[in-house]
Amino acid sequence: MKKPSFRAVLVVGGMVALLLVASSPWIVAAYWRVRSDNPIRRGMVRAGELGCFSCHGELGRAGIPIPGSEEGVPEWSGSVWMMYVKSDEDIRGYIMDGSLEDASGHGHDEDNGSHTHDADAITMPAYGDVIDRRDLEDLVATFKVLSGMVAPARGTPAREGFDLAREWQCFSCHGPGGSGGLPNRGSFTGFVPGWYGADFDDLVRDRDEFDSWIRDGAIPRLADHPIAKFFLRRQLLQMPAYRELTAGQLDSLWAYAQWLKETDGGHTGEIASW
Ligand code: HEC
Ligand code: HEC
């Protein structure tokens, strides 16, 4: 039998690869999911799986009431975290042990114990034996972003961008702190892109494209591209056009995106002061 030429192998191989991609959009989706993964995306998934939001409320925004106690489960946001944790180590303590009982000097008992409860009808589980090191670090990162424990310093353009994003609720599509990864059925990757990482770099090549996405909800590079066009039309969630945002506000949003890049989505940023 004659050996197939290198060229023929390439052609057939290419066709097989194309067929695979065409018939299994999940291959593309899985590739992008891995490529643009980040600690906050992973931590969000873990927090859901481990029941954190069942007690602390959706996105940690509202703890459930505790029967027999005036205090409910603490929410993560709205500065409530300040009464409980000061450092990454404190957050790790809660997650691993369900409390900071062993830690001295700080923790939830220092101010007259007002938020301890006698009934103990609902206590935080100790996750030490359930999760591995990476889960722990992802959960810590996610807590820090959701709680607002880390955010751009007040009075900076990045902070203005962050405040704008909260005001317009951009995070409801783009994930906590612009971490991305929330489902978007029918889109090329299967999820809404983040504001940092591989998916962002792919969709935003320069400042012009950034502005164009926000102001027009699209960029010419993709809007005119035959394949991209197909996916952009088909996806369920579309980027809205925020035409009323001023040039200054776009500067702030850009500064916030830079801050996210520098702090790996915020979680390596400085802890907000008391
Ligand atoms: C069964 C309910 C429950 C679940 C599930 C739960 N917690 Fe908690 N959590 C609590 C309670 C109650 C406290 C308050 C503890 C105290 O007063 O010592 C708390 C406190 C905390 C704190 C201290 C700071 C604050 O503002 O809340 C952190 C951090 C925390 N939990 C993270 C998590 C994470 C992460 C998960 C999931 C891996 C989780 N919790 C799951 C009930 C729960
Ligand atoms: C209804 C959901 C939704 C909301 C709300 C939303 N976006 Fe988007 N955004 C998207 C989707 C989906 C894309 C992906 C672009 C596409 O595929 O058309 C996107 C893309 C982007 C991009 C470019 C790609 C990337 O990696 O992020 C930027 C920048 C962006 N949005 C910023 C914002 C800002 C700023 C706000 C708030 C003022 C906002 N978005 C609100 C859905 C949303």
The gist of it:
This protein is an all-alpha fold and 274 residues long. It contains 13 helices and no strands.
Describe this structure in words.
This protein is mainly α and 274 residues long. The chain has two domains: 41-147, Cytochrome Bc1 Complex, Chain D, domain 2; 152-262, Cytochrome Bc1 Complex, Chain D, domain 2. Helices cover 47% and strands 0% of the residues. The longest helix is centred in the first third of the chain and has 18 residues, at 6-23. It is globular and about 80 Å long. The N and C termini lie far apart (78 Å). One heme C is lined by residues 165, 168, 170, 172-174, 184, 187, 192-195, 199-200, 203-204, 210, 213-214, 232, 235, 237-240, 242, 253.
Summary tags:
274 residues; mainly alpha; Cytochrome Bc1 Complex, Chain D, domain 2; 2 domains; 13 helices; 47% helix; 0% strand; globular; binds heme C
Helix and strand topology:
Elements: H1 6-23, H2 25-35, H3 39-49, H4 52-56, H5 88-97, H6 133-147, H7 157-167, H8 171-174, H9 198-203, H10 207-216, H11 220-223, H12 226-234, H13 247-262
Helix pairs in contact: 1-2, 3-6, 5-6, 7-13
Bound molecules: heme C (2 copies).
The site of one heme C has 27 residues, from α8, α9 and α10.
